[in-house]
Write a structure and sequence with these properties.
Elements: E1 9-10, E2 24-25, H1 29-46, H2 51-67, H3 69-80, H4 84-108, E3 112-113, E4 122-130, E5 133-137, H5 145-157, E6 160-164, H6 170-182, E7 190-192, H7 197-205, E8 210-214, H8 217-228, E9 234-237, E10 242-246, H9 252-264, E11 274-280, H10 284-296, H11 314-329, E12 333-336, E13 340-342, E14 347-349, E15 352-355, H12 362-365, E16 372-378, H13 381-388, E17 397-400, H14 404-413, E18 420-421, E19 442-443, H15 448-453, E20 456-464, H16 469-472, H17 483-494
Parallel strand pairs: 5-6, 5-8, 6-7, 8-9, 10-11, 10-17, 11-16, 15-16, 17-18
Antiparallel strand pairs: 1-2, 3-4, 4-20, 9-19, 12-15, 13-14
Helix pairs in contact: 1-7, 2-4, 2-5, 3-4, 3-6, 4-5, 9-10
C-alpha cells in the first residue's frame, strides 16, 4: 500500500504476483460529507420511485454483473489472491440476492395490516419507507459480494448508498460504482469512497441515516458507539467461531469432508468457516481418519493448481501460527499441515488438522481466520451442544446427523444466528431467510425480509372507520366515566376468554 505526501493514493498489490492491482485516490475524511450530500440529493428521486420504477434499473445492474463475471473475477483475484473459480463463485451470492430482491422487494415491503381486535372500528397497518442514505463499510475477504449485498438491500428499499470498501481491496469496491453507472442507475445513487479507518469513521459521522458494517467485533463496537451518539441504526455482521457438531449417526465421510472444505475455504479467511469441530466419541476415530484423508488432498498453491490461495496480509499468518503453536504447546496433536509457506509475493498456510484440543486453548476461543481445523472428542450430544455454545460468538454453525428431527432439535439449541443441518455456509447465500449473528457476531442482520426492512422507516397508521374510536369509548375529556365503566368493559371484552 502506498501514499504520497499530498494526495493520498491506495495501490493494493496482488498477493499472488506482487504487482499493483490498480490505484485509486483516497477520499479524505473532510470530503466524505460532500459525497453523502450528493447521495442525499440523489435520494430525492430514487426514494420517490415506486418499486416497479426501480426494478428495471436493478435488473440492468444484475444483467451487467452476469455479463461481466470474468472481468469482476479477475479484479477479485488480483486483489485477494483467490482461486479464479472461487472468485466466480463469490458472484453467485451477489446474483442470487439481486434476483431475489429485484423480484420480491415490492411484496416484502407491502403495507402490513394489523388486527382490529378489540378496536373493531379502527383500521391499522404498517408502511415501509426508505430510510434515506445508507453508509456501507465492507471487508476484504468477499470484496465484491459483501458490499454489493448490503447495497442491493438498500437500493431495493429505495435508499441511496455510499460504500467504503476495505483499503486492501479498493478496486473491487470501485467496480460496484462503475457497474452501477454503466447499467444506467441514476448518478450518485451508488457512490464509492476510499480510504482507511478515518474515512470510514467520517462516513459514520456524516449525514447517513443507517450504517451497515461487516468486519471485526472491535471495530463493530466502535461503530455502534459512534452511531449511538445520534441514535443512528446499525447493521453489524461481525466475526465468528463457528462450530460443527458431528453426532454418532452422522454420515461421517460427508461431515469430515465438510469440516476440511469449510475450514480451509478462502484460506480460512471467512466468518462462516468451520473453526471448531465436536465429534461424539463413538465415531471420533472414523471421523479423524476421513478428515486426515480429506485434508491430504487439499493444497495451498498459486493459480488453478491451488485449492486455497495466500493470506491477503502476511500479518494474518502470524496470528494463525501463534494460536497453533500455543495449542501444540498445551497438548494438541498436529495431524496434518501446520507450516507457513513464504513466497516472493505472498504467504500461504498449509491446510492444518489437529486433535487433542480442549476449550482452554485460544485456538478454541478466539477467531483464527486461517485454514486450521481443531477437532475435539465429546461424550454425547449434550456435551457437544454445551461446548459449541461456550463462545462469545454466535454467527453460524452446523449439526450433522442422519435423523432430520434430531438435527432440527440440535440446531434449535445452538446459540447462533444461523445453523445448517448436514451442510455448512449455505445460509450465507440463502436470500429468503435472515442471516446474522448474536453476541460478538453482530447486531440485526442481512438477507430475508429483515435484511431489506433494516433499510426502511416503519410507519404505523390507524384510521377510524366511523369516527374516533377513543370518543366512542368515552375516553375524551372532560371525564364522563369512572373505574366501574372500564372494569365492565374489560370483562365484556376479555371475560369470555377465561
Amino acid at each position: 500500500m502506498t501514499t504520497s505526501a499530498e494526495t493520498r493514493w491506495l495501490t493494493p498489490k496482488s498477493p499472488l504476483t506482487g504487482e499493483p492491482a490498480g490505484t485509486v485516490r483516497v477520499t479524505e475524511p473532510q470530503e466524505v460529507a460532500a459525497a453523502v450530500g450528493r447521495s442525499r440529493s440523489a435520494f430525492v428521486g430514487w426514494g420517490a420511485m415506486s418499486h416497479s420504477q426501480r426494478r428495471p434499473h436493478l435488473r440492468a445492474f444484475a444483467k451487467l454483473i452476469l455479463k461481466s463475471m470474468d472481468r469482476i473475477a479477475q479484479v477479485i483475484v488480483s486483489e485477494t489472491g483467490k482461486n479464479l473459480a472461487d472468485a466466480h463463485a463469490e458472484l453467485i451470492g451477489t446474483l442470487v440476492s439481486l434476483d431475489f430482491y429485484t423480484r420480491r422487494a415490492e411484496k416484502l415491503l407491502r403495507p402490513k395490516k394489523g388486527s382490529s381486535w378489540p378496536f373493531l372500528l379502527t383500521r391499522g397497518w404498517t408502511e415501509y419507507h426508505p430510510i434515506g442514505v445508507a453508509g456501507i463499510i465492507s471487508p476484504w475477504n468477499y470484496p465484491f459480494y459483501l458490499p454489493t449485498l448490503s447495497a442491493i438491500q438498500a437500493l431495493s428499499a429505495g435508499c441511496t448508498v455510499v460504500i467504503k470498501p476495505s483499503e486492501l481491496t479498493p478496486m473491487c469496491g470501485q467496480l460496484i460504482e462503475d457497474l452501477a453507472l454503466e447499467a444506467g442507475l441514476p448518478k450518485d445513487v451508488v457512490q464509492v469512497i476510499h480510504g482507511y479507518g478515518d474515512t470510514g469513521a467520517a462516513l459514520v459521522d456524516a449525514d447517513t441515516d443507517i450504517v451497515a458494517f461487516t468486519g471485526s467485533p472491535s471495530v463493530g463496537r466502535s461503530i455502534a458507539a459512534q452511531a449511538a451518539q445520534t441514535l443512528k441504526p446499525v447493521v453489524l455482521e461481525l466475526g465468528g467461531k463457528d462450530a460443527q457438531i458431528v453426532l454418532e449417526d452422522a454420515d461421517v465421510k460427508d461431515a469430515a469432508r465438510a469440516a476440511i472444505t469449510f475450514g480451509v475455504f478462502n484460506a480460512g479467511q471467512q466468518c462462516v468457516g468451520i473453526e471448531r469441530v465436536y465429534v461424539v466419541e463413538d465415531v471420533y476415530d472414523d471421523f479423524i481418519a476421513e478428515a486426515t484423508k480429506a485434508v491430504g488432498r487439499i493444497n495451498a498453491a498459486t493459480g488453478d493448481n491451488g485449492d486455497i490461495g495466500p493470506f491477503i496480509s502476511p500479518n494474518q499468518a502470524d496470528v494463525v501460527e501463534t494460536q497453533l503453536q500455543a495449542a501444540i504447546a498445551d497438548g494438541a496433536r498436529l495431524l496434518a499441515g501446520g507450516s507457513k509457506i513464504n513466497t516472493d509475493h505472498g504467504v500461504y498456510f498449509e491446510p492444518t488438522l489437529l486433535d487433542g484440543v480442549d476449550h482452554s486453548m485460544v485456538l478454541m476461543q478466539e477467531e483464527t481466520f486461517g485454514p486450521v481445523i481443531p477437532v475435539m472428542k465429546v461424550a454425547d450430544e449434550e456435551e457437544a451442544i454445551e461446548l459449541a455454545n461456550d463462545s462469545p460468538y454466535g454467527l453460524h454453525g452446523s449439526a450433522w446427523t442422519k435423523n432430520k428431527k434430531r438435527g432440527h432439535r440440535v440446531a434449535s439449541r445452538m446459540k447462533t444466528g444461523t445453523v445448517a443441518v448436514n451442510d455448512h455456509l449455505i445460509n450465507f447465500l440463502y436470500p429468503t431467510i435472515k442471516f446474522g449473528g448474536i453476541g460478538e457476531s453482530g447486531l440485526n442482520g442481512q438477507l430475508g425480509e429483515e435484511g431489506i426492512k433494516a433499510f426502511t422507516i416503519h410507519r404505523s397508521i390507524t384510521s377510524a372507520r366511523l369516527g374516533p374510536t377513543t370518543k366512542l369509548l368515552s375516553a375524551w375529556l372532560p371525564r364522563r366515566v369512572g373505574p366501574r365503566y372500564w372494569k365492565t368493559l374489560a370483562r365484556v371484552l376479555f371475560g369470555w376468554r377465561r
